[in-house]
Amino acid sequence: MLKNTISGLDKILFDDIPKGSVILVTGAEGTLKSGLVFSMMANYISANDEHGLYVTLEQNIESHLRNMNSLGIREERGLHIFDYRDMRLEWMDSELDLIKTTEEVIDSYKEKYDNLTLFALDSLNALYSISDQENMRSKIYNFFSHLRDEELTSFLIMESAQSRISGQFSSSHQVEHFLADGTIELGMIEGSGGVKRYIQILKMRATKHAMEKHQIIISDKGLNILGPIY
Amino acid sequence: MNTSIQDIADLSEFQEDNCKKFVDRIIKTNREVFMMSSLIEKQMCGYDLIKEIFSKCDVFLSQGTVYPVLYTLEGEGLLHAEYSKGDMRSKNYSLTLKGRKIAEKDIDDFSRALEQVSLLLKR
Asked: Which CATH architecture fits B5-122?
């Protein structure tokens, strides 16, 4: 179960995330978005005979793994990492339709591994920045549908501004929030005790969850979710 | 019923298109065999491999279907990857000894399977 993959995650997630859900993981840089997702996937894969695919557009495999190791997160054999470095060096961006290509990458791994059940994309922002912007709303709708059709529990990482104003997301990303089954926000809060990282579940369809911001820390055993921050 | 030259031309074009569709599907579904077969001859990067298969078979294997196979085969120890000296833009893949053995066997098995299917259809 995904809610048991990180120490303390069951404090904010009372039921498990339904299989095949598409979850947005948002937050500013340095808020542990990649670490949270990779850690959940790696721990889930190590406890289950299933496969996962982590697609990174932001970093190459080596630097991603270096970052994960520095957070105490280990690599798992069944967790496949795909980066676009070679493809983007050999082809011009105009020759690549990265949304369609990502769907094909998923299909290729799904063909190879029947029990591929988890998927992550790091990040949606990078995918947008190198994609043709025409009909983007419809492309994103189709991409989300593809993930659901493949019955993949998916984590889409999206970098966003640190704070939301009156609970509203910036209009440029409303579509994703509307389409997603869940949104996990990561952030930083400065208080009397210094700067603390937090995790908050803003939305999770068909799942009971806490609404409060909880502190998230890096311990020598990986990520750890503590009690409410207030 | 009279058959016009145009009808014959249309039928011939349809048969060619239909044949092309089958070839296209066979190659795409079994791209791993075709990719390894190309790598028996020389080492190549993903870009060259796609170009090579297109020029030989007139079938375009998209990037999203080729690179995952290269990475998986590399992970399984069937391919060896290295960047060209002084050129970090293309990662060249070659078959390892284990990869070459598997490639030769797969090509042989695949050819025999095609022959068997052909015989079954002609019965």
From this structure: Orthogonal Bundle (1.10)
Return the CATH fold of A15-194: Rossmann fold (3.40.50)
A174 touching B (Cβ < 8 Å): no
Residues of chain A neighbouring B62 (CB-CB closer than 8 A): 100-101, 104
Beta carbons of B67 and A100 less than 8 Å apart: no
Q: Which residue of A has its CA nearest to B69?
A: A108
Q: What is the DSSP letter of A4?
A: G
Report phi then psi at B46, rounded to 5: -55, -40
B90–A contact, CB cutoff 8 A: yes
Minimum Cα–Cα distance from B44: chain A residue: A90
Sheet order of strands, A214-219 included:
A79-83, A51-56, A116-122, A153-159, A22-27, A182-191, A194-204, A214-219, A222-228
Q: What is the pLDDT along chain A (230 residues), one digit of tens a residue?
A: 899 999 999 999 999 999 999 999 999 999 999 999 999 999 999 999 999 999 999 889 999 999 999 998 988 999 999 999 999 999 988 888 999 999 999 999 999 999 999 999 999 999 988 888 788 889 999 999 999 999 999 999 999 875 544 445 555 667 888 899 999 999 999 877 889 999 999 999 999 999 999 999 999 889 999 999 87
Q: Is B12 on the interface with A (CB under 8 A)?
A: no
Instruction: Kindly list the domain boundaries of chain B, sorted by start residue.
Output: 5-122
* ipTM of the prediction greater than 0.90, yes or no: no
CA A50 to chain centre: 18
Instruction: Give the domain ranges of chain A.
Output: 15-194
